[in-house]
Amino acid sequence: MIAGGEVSSREVAQAHLDRIAAVDGDVHAFLHVSAERALQQADAVDKEIAAGGPPASPLAGVPLALKDIVVQQGVPTTAGSKILEGWLPPYDATVTTRLLDAGVIILGKTNLDEFAMGSSTENSAYGPSRNPWDLTRIPGGSGGGSAAALAAFEAPLAIGTDTGGSIRQPAAVTGTVGTKPTYGGVSRYGVIALASSLDQVGPCARTVLDTALLHEVIAGYDPRDSTSIPSPVPSVVDAVRRGQADGVAGMRIGVVKQLRGEGYQAGVLESFDAAVATLTAAGAEIVEVDCPHFEYGLAAYYLILPSECSSNLARFDAMRYGLRVEDASTVSAEEVMSRTRGQGFGPEVKRRIILGTYALSAGYYDAYYGSAQKVRTLIRRDFENAFTTADVLISPASPVTAFPLGEKVNDPMAMYLNDLATIPGSLAGIPAMSVPSGIATDTGLPVGLQIMGPALGEERIYRVAAAFENAYLAQHSALVPDRAPELEVAR
Ligand code: GLN
What we know:
The protein is an alpha/beta fold. Helices cover 40% and strands 12% of the residues. The protein has helices spanning 9-27, 35-50, 94-101, 144-151, 168-174, 208-218, 236-246, 266-281, 297-312, 333-344, 347-359, 366-389, 412-416, 423-428, 458-475, 485-490, and strands at 30-33, 63-67, 105-110, 157-162, 177-180, 200-205, 252-256, 285-289, 392-396, 432-439, 446-452. Strands 1-3-2-4-6-5-10-11-9-7-8 form an 11-stranded mixed beta sheet, with helices on both faces. The longest helix has 24 residues, at 366-389. The two termini are 23 Å apart. The model has no long low-confidence stretch (mean pLDDT 95).
């Protein structure tokens, strides 16, 4: 409609800014709203369209919410931490540049667990986001702000980052779509690092097609990221069209034996079984695959991630960015650093820095970090093996539906278990996405289906996701029947 001049980009941007003004007091998806910038950007797109030029991209003029761990020049970026309060990035991330070049309107920055550590946004130094389906519940994490913005119709597109599940688990518990691309598929330049061997930026939206359109805008080789893959942008939009037209006829879909059963909520498993039946009806051959090392995934991840983040977060030293705590008692640079880090980091960040520093210390390195890396290789081999019998693998994306705020925030182990199904894919660097698979009958809340592919197999997972979405919509009237009644009153 924007490209055809039926509606202006300014009108669309303004409508979303109005929606944010109406509901974000309840949802708290945003840490910063760039209203003026967004409208200026929209006007520029409208001008180009009026001049009759070709649109910069299929998404030119469409608004987006950017996770506050991706930098945008001159726009406050905190990574959900007090230690970066007030910091204005002096440059754009490659993802930001690509969005702006494509004419995508950046509405603002979304809330997240501090430095993307968490599964609920409750570790944000700026207070949690709330799930638009039920405001007393978590929207997932770390990218809960981006997912909540989508589910609350505050933005039609969003950017997330996924280190162990931070795109997929929030998508699952908010009934939205999110993709973690193949490691190296989207540039990490200008994305504040959590665990560099795992971090991956990805697209989020309410439909598979929207997610694919955004994927093509942000993906592709970037010489500024040394782990960026020099291969062409995957044709995921074509893959979606193929899935919509041809379903999954002739595809072999593997159900991972280890990613179901104990630890998974009954309503989630029921929805998963229904999804398997839907995919079978859409033409897939279902096979069971055995990935025996997945059970060690969580343990390996929670050694590798703290190790890498203890190193990455050393740069927050009170000298270069953000917060600096200085008073009469801080006479040395070392004291300034220690006080700043003491006050600037929250408890989960400190916990992981301590754990990681310990795991990397001389004498323990081989026993902990070394063993975890070996497990990582075994998990990668499990996947390689599984992909010899299946084109894609499926599982629930999150073991549970959205849980109440406060329920797990003081129990790190319980919080970590939310990543049970997403972590193996992160350790192996493969692409994986979550698509809504309906509503759990036991809680009445959304469930996500995880679809995983081999490295660079994005086209396969989008095809299956689109076919599933289509088949699901043919059986049910909508994926998103209702949201928190409070939000509808506000609207
Ligand atoms: N919940 C996971 C963690 O706390 C995932 C985080 C992420 O993907 N950024 O590490």
